[in-house]
Amino acid sequence: MPQHPRAGYRLLHVHAHPDDESSKGAATTARYVAEGVDVHVVTCTGGERGSILNPKMDRPEILATITEVRRQEMERARDILGITQDWLGFVDSGWPEGDPRPPLPDGCFASLPVEEAAEPLVALMRRFRPHVVTTYDERGGYPHPDHIMCHRVSVEAFAAAGDPQRYPEAGEPWQPLKLYYHHTFNRPRYQALHEAMLRHGFESPYAERLAEWKVDPEWDARITTRVPCAAYFGVRDQALMAHATQIDPDGPWFAVPREIQEEVWPHEDYELVTAHVEASLPEDDLFAGITDPA
């Protein structure tokens, strides 16, 4: 049998909740899995305090068993994407509402000291030995406390995993070579999709959002890496649909026809933050510069 072109390469995605692995970078994941990359997802929390966002699933029996339901959804998405996955076991912090916002629940993920919360992730990095790690930017992609904490924990673990002086009980040191932030929800992408919808005579689901979205060229310029993956948008959509409590199939996630997405924005976007290999920007590959996975 012919060997996959990326056999031996390892990619680790660190996410806050079940469904994040399908809404951020899932087509990239599917592409690399097809090429033979070993892709592993870390899910920091169980999504226990997440709302039911699909009205068709908003039923008392679902809410009463939301933790188990979301685990089952994650299992389905995992199988669709062809990945392996670990739960770090922390408790969802929820989305604090009110003015002023209430304090975080005791013992939740976002309330923990960063070094304490990073230790199991350091151990997992040393065990899985990824070449590339992805996570969220310092804003969390959006300012959910768990997303911001996921960023902090991922950055801490990436820096510490290769240092034998840090977390000595967490296994033999291993230094991942590249760290990326997801930039899935960037304004140029939404603007391009919005304009394409109007051009094709459709109503855009993004008009209101774009009207409120502050233009920030410096932020948008942080994107360094666009991974072509349009051929895997269908796999991404199937993985999203697996998270039935979170994704409404009749909602804005699927309002833009896939053909328009493939034409207008056939890639997923990342920011290269740290590289221990030579990097030439811009890139079209998370493994650029890594010539030998051994």
Summarize the helices and strands and which ones pair or pack.
Elements: E1 10-15, H1 20-23, H2 26-34, E2 38-45, H3 60-64, H4 66-81, E3 84-90, H5 114-128, E4 132-135, H6 145-160, E5 178-182, H7 187-199, H8 207-212, H9 217-220, E6 225-228, H10 233-242, H11 258-264, E7 267-275
Helix pairs in contact: 4-10, 5-6
Distance between the ends: 21 Å
The profile of the biggest β sheet is:
7 strands, mixed
Bulk shape: globular
Mean pLDDT: 95
CA-atom Rg in angstroms = 19 Å
Q: Structural class of the helices, strands and pairings?
A: alpha/beta
Number of strands: 7
- H-E order: EHHEHHEHEHEHHHEHHE
What are the low-pLDDT stretches, counting only 5+ consecutive residues below 50?
A: none
Fourth-level CATH superfamily: LmbE-like
CATH domain topology = Rossmann fold
Helix content: 25-40%
Architecture, CATH level 2? 3-Layer(aba) Sandwich
| Spatial ordering of strands, largest sheet | 3-2-1-4-5-7-6
At the first level of CATH, what is the class?
Answer: Alpha Beta
Overall structural domain count = 1
